[in-house]
Amino acid sequence: MLRAIVQLLKILTIGVTALLVATGGARVFDLAIDRATPDDIGEEVAIEINEDEDVDAVATKLADAGLIRSKLLFTGQMRITGGSLKPGKYTLAKGMTVEQMIDRVSGVEPQVAQAEEAGDDTAADTGAGETVSVTIPEGRRIEEIAEISEEAGIEGGYDGFLQAVKEVDRSQYDFLADLPPNASLEGFLFPNTYDFVKDDPGYNVAQLLNGFDAQVTQEMRDRAKAMNLSLHEVITFASIIEREARVPDERPIIADVYLNRYSDPDFPGGLEADPTTQYEVGTREEWWPDLNENKDLLETPSPYNTYKNRGLPPGPICNPGFASIQAVLFPGGTNNYFFVATGDEAGTHYFAETWEEHQENVRLYTEAVADQ
């Protein structure tokens, strides 16, 4: 019921926003996006709600703690939804939506157990609502995140996390609107450090999706449209770059290579990206097998084999970080079509505009490897 009311609230918010514009309101933006800054996403903040505090007092606490920017939005949503505050100690995370905070402090979402100041060391181990700090590195596929969730002791383990991903209500996230039918959420579980709730994998998946929503701004989405790319296509490119790049400065140049190949109808080959085939053939024993050790894998018949198929694979192959997404939206501007590893420990690459230049770089790489 609360979810349905909140959906109604989103419609009402549009009307409120229009009213503020008409009356000269200067903080309309805060009503539309009430989030922490991207650098703060996932930062834990302890909040205590006392029995004598009303909604306005709690909104002030949240604003002072940097959890929200607009007290008006929080108090308005609380009153329209009919939510009631539950006194107690809570742990909230910057980057949570106002809806999530309301759910938490009204008892809809699990309250985080806190040790009492009197010295009860067992209070935080009671189970229900207990959190654990979990870091999701860039470039991991959904199954790898499921493994991280299992290792962190989250209820349901590996399978529980994957099931929670499948059960996401995609209508709650506008950035999922252009996903092709039957597409997974691969690419949209944003890597960062989060406070996972131990007994609620579904809530944890929501945190990852909200992390994406907070980081990938409307300006970035508009930039994708200007490049004639859907957000899904941008994230697919970014996921390939995330798996290929080892040196940060090379991300925009690697983006050049794949964007040039993709957009040039005269280029004779496909994207020819090893990681897309690795994604297809990977198993839980080895998610990213070394194709140099088994060249036969490059013959795998699959839409993810970008040696056999032109264009992009069906979707992202991992969950990329902010830098790789930015590299797609703001590539290096070179005319490079080829790259090969240099063979150094840093993982740098040689880049080339022509096949002939590329062959010379391949020779240099072969010599470097032979000398090691």
Automatic annotation (TrEMBL):
Keyword presence, Membrane: yes
Catalysis performed (reactions): a peptidoglycan chain = a peptidoglycan chain with N-acetyl-1,6-anhydromuramyl-[peptide] at the reducing end + a peptidoglycan chain with N-acetylglucosamine at the non-reducing end
Cellular component annotations (GO), alphabetically ordered: plasma membrane
Keyword ATP-binding: no
Source organism, top-level taxon: Bacteria
Function, in words: Functions as a peptidoglycan terminase that cleaves nascent peptidoglycan strands endolytically to terminate their elongation.
Family as reported in the entry's similarity comment: Belongs to the transglycosylase MltG family.
Alphabetized PANTHER family for the sequence: ENDOLYTIC MUREIN TRANSGLYCOSYLASE
Protein name: Endolytic murein transglycosylase
Organism: uncultured Thermomicrobiales bacterium
Gene: mltG
